[in-house]
Structure formats: structure tokens, C-alpha cells
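Reopening this one. Same input as before:
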Amino acid sequence: MTVKTFKTWYLVHKWTSLICTAFLLMLCITGLPLIFHHEIEHLLGDTPEVAEMPAGTPIVPLDRLVAAAQQQRPGEQVMFMSWDDEEPELAWITTGPDMKANENLHFLAFDNRTGEVLKLISQNELSFMRIMFQLHVDLFAGLPGKLFLGFMGLLFVVAIVTGIAVYGPLMRKLDFGTVRKQRSARVKWLDLHNMLGIVTVVWALVVGGTGVINTWADLIIKYWQFDQLASMTAPYVGQPMPATLGSLEAAMATARKAAPDMDPAFVAFPGGNFSSPHHYAFFMRGDAPLTARLLKPVLVDAQTAALTDTRDMPWYVTALLVSQPLHFGDYGGMPLKVIWALFDIVTIVVLGSGLYLWLKRRRNPIEQRIRELEQDAGAPLGLAARSSL
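Same output, byte for byte:
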């Protein structure tokens, strides 16, 4: 590696790190409670508690839950019904002012064994976890906020890659993990920054890369709607909207028959963004830790309960669905969550130490700092073309 090449890597690492550091610190801080969101929601009382009942207690018909939701929120449309694999006794129904609404939504939690409404949450309520989630996902700025954070994530990935390139020449004559305690505070923090950075490099690349993919979620889903969903519903184009809807329970039976080894994650009601005016769109999932995050759409005629189409998700949606559990570490139980949290904390230290090193920077030219680093390491950095100095 020449001095000129090293200088380029160094400057790219420096400036990409500086530009994204403040936002990455925010993402690490807000991401920490999101790793334990189920546990924190229970602690804060945001998740409804269900009564103890004998195993095998039958669930109430889905149509009864829909009717109860319509009674609770008159004048609103039922948009989704969903089930959390960690809370199998609960069924959540989302209602809104119209079928394509993104604002002023309400979320009703039902005990699906009794049909009782346990909790009503308004989208406009700002709980602690909702604030953390919105800051982490889009800075309360919608799609522009997501794309901005995605760009910061790309800078973070570039900073990691260039950091690896800089780390090799700088540390090749020092033992791994060396922290030169006899030197100045700035040198000690530099060594700590380098050591922690290289230890967490794989995790940081995984979380940074999957975070970037997650910021493209809206665009990926839009393309899926234009591509796959349009193809699946093409036979119904031009047909009048049904005046009344058939039984959701019957449609569920059809979906389960079409995907016998899977369970429903959620169902999108006719007229919404995830279905057509003529279909219940069931999104089925597997029962393993990873396959539980992969979805398979099953479209069922909303009047006749006949199967219209089902197919696997295309690769670009699968990439998004896989990136989500990898990003938050919530597919391997509590041990993986603790590991993710520890790496998150270490990354906060790496980002903070990098900011400290910049604030305490010296005004010496980079060439002089390279010579000083060579002297500290006790050997040249392996840089050729010394005449370029």
C-alpha cells in the first residue's frame, strides 16, 4: 500500500465516520431498548395481560372479532388482523378512517379465546417505545426520514470497510488488543477505538447492512405490489367491488389448506394496500425461529372463500424479511438479545471514542502523523513511494 493510497483510505474513513457518527449514536441508543421491546412493553404495561385458561381452550370465530372491532370503532374500516407468535392468545385488529389510511389508526387487542377487548391503542399516542421506534426508523419524517437514515447507514458501512483497510497497516507490528497505557490519553483512546472497532466489525457490518435494507422497506413493498400482487389479482381487474364481504373464518380455512404447514401472521382486508378490492390477503409464516419471519401470501376471494393464488415471495422481499430479525437480533431468544445488546453498547463506545479523537485532533499534517505512527509501531507501515512525502 502506498502512502497516497493509505492517505485516501484514512480520509474516507475519517469523513464518512464524522458525517454519520451523530446519527449512528442516536440509532444505537434507540436500538438498545428495541432489542428488548417485548420485555419492556410488558414492564410498562403496554402489552395487555391475558387470563389463564386451560390448554386447548377454543378460540372465538374471526367474524365475531371483526364485528366487535366495528362496534368499538364505528365509522372506521377494519384494515388488518394480526397475530404475534410470542402472544398466541392475542389477536390485534387495526382500524382506520379508510382502507388506505396511514394516519389516525387504532389498534385493538382481543383475547381470541373470549372475544374480549383488552386494550385500545391510538396511533397518535406517544409511548416510550413508540418514540424509540419512530426515531430509530424514520426520525418521525416518514419515507424521507427512512431514506436519510439509509444514507447514513451506507456511510457507516463505508466507514467500517475503510477502517479495516486502515487498521491493518497501523497495527501489524503491535499485538492484537494492545492499549498503550503509558502514552497520552488520546493514544490510549485511539488504541481502544481500534481494538473495539475490529472486534465488533462483523456485527457492525451485519447490523449496518441490514439497517440500510430496512430503510428501503416502503420502496420494496411498493415494487412487490406493482409486480407480484398486480399479477396475482389480474383476473379481477375491471370487476365491480363486492357489495358485501363473505366470512373471514371461511377464508381462513382456505388459506390454511393452501399453506398447511404455516400459520397466519396477518390478514389484509379487501381494498387495502396489501390486498385488492376482491380479496382477503393472508400472509402465512413458518414455525421455526427464522421461517417465522418469512411470509407467503395467500389470496382468497372475499365473497366465495375460493383460493385465487398463492406464491412464494420474490428474492427482494425475502431479503427484506431476513434482514429485519438479523438487525434486531430477535430470532434467537434472550441469549441472542443479550449478545446484540452488548455489541450495541460496544459500538456506542467506538462511535463516542471516534468523536473524542476528532475533537482532540492535532493540526499536524497526515504525513507527519503517519511517520509518528510508524515510530510508535517500531517499523514502517509497509508504505511504498516514500518520495511522495
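So the earlier flakiness isn't reproducible anymore. For the record, The longest helix spans residues 3-35.
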